[in-house]
Here is the input.
Amino acid sequence: MDPLPPGTAPPTPPVVGGVVASDRYCIRCGYALAGLPPTGNCPECGTSIELSLRERTLAAAAREYVATLKTGLSLVLNGILLMIVLMMALIFSGIFAGAMGTPGIGGIAMVVRLLMLCVQGMILYGYWKYTEPDPGQASLEATNSARAIMRTTVAIQALLALVSAALSFVPPAVGAAPLVGLLNAGLMVVGLAVWAVQFFAAMRYTRWIATRIPDFYIIRRTKLYMWLLPVVCIVGALLMFLGPLVALVMYWNLLDRLRKQVKSIVATGQPAELKGRVG
Ligand SMILES: [Zn+2]
Here is the structure.
C-alpha cells in the first residue's frame, strides 16, 4: 500500500483473526462482509472481497478530500431547503396575483424565478463537489461508475437550466411563441429523464461513500430508496404534489445523516456513533 498522505490516520485493520472485521462492506453492493474469509468474493454481487478491503475508509482518506465532500453536501442540502421556500413563494405570489389582479406581481414572480436559478446553480455545484474524485482512490474508480454518471447529469442539468432561463427571461420574437412552448415542453421531458438518471446514480454513489464511513444504515436506505422514493413520488403526485415533497424530505434526511458523518470525520477523524451505523 502506498504511504498515507500527511495529516491522515492509519486505516483500521480490515482483517481480524483471519476473517473480515465487523465494519467492512462490499464497495459495489454494500453487503456486510464481517466474518467472511478475505480471499473470497462478495456472496451478493461477486466482487472480490480483497478489492473492497483495499478501499480506504474516509477517516483514513486525505482530510481535504473529506472536507470537499462536506462542502458539497452542505451546498446540496441548504440549496434544497432554499428551493422549497422559493417554490412556496412562487405559488403564493401566483395565488396573490390571481386574487388581486395586480399587474405588478409578475415582477415578483420574475425575481423569485431568478433566485431559483441561482439556487439551482448552488445545488448543481454542490453535487459537483460531492462527486469529486478521491485522489487516494484512483485504482478503485472502476467500481464507481455512478460518480461519473452523476457528474454527467449535473453538467447536462446546468446546460438545460441556462437554455430554459434564456427562454423564460428573453421575450420571444413575434410569432415564435408556439416554438418556444414546444421547446419548453421538450426541455421539461429531457430534464425529467436526466433527473431520474441522476437520482439512481446518487443512490449508488451515496452507498459507495457510505461503505467508506462505514454506515450500514445509509447503505440499507440507499437500497430501499431506489424503489421506495420513486413509488412515493409517483403515487403521491396524485395527492396535490405531496408525494414528491415527502420523497424529497426522505432524500434530504439521508444526505443529512451522511453530512453528519462526514462532519464528524473532518472534526474528530472518526465517524459519529449514530443509531444503526454498524449492521
Ligand atoms: Zn457485493
The pocket of zinc ion is lined by residues 26, 28-29, 31, 42, 44-45, 47 (CB under 6 Å).
